[in-house]
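Milestone M4 deliverable, item 7.
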Amino acid sequence: QVLLVQSGGGWVQTGGFLRLSCAASGGTLRGYEMAWFRQAPGKEREFVASVLYNSRTTYNSDLTKGRFTVSRDNAKNTGYLELTGLKPSDTAVYYCAASMSVAATETPQGLSIPDVSEYDYWGQGTQVTVSS
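Output delivered:
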């Protein structure tokens, strides 16, 4: 059973920077897509970014494109999300997730995101708070 343990997060001012980590233990993430989601109070969980196992193919939501960078270190079984240019609207609990069977993909209609229920493993979540 893979366990995803998140670290990072915290409180920053507008325009600040944070780095989130998601370390897997109890198993390997070989072949898994790693994704990041966030959930603000009273809102549904939304896709932020994802990276395939090849570490080269990444996707971002329109809201985070150009500001957030997703990456992974397969040797360390760890994924990362770097958040720059933070805004108060980025305030949320951020979750990492991993899936062997589904992944975000680019389609002619735009980015196709798997349903959250299709992800195999989830981190415990970490709070990111951005003050104005």
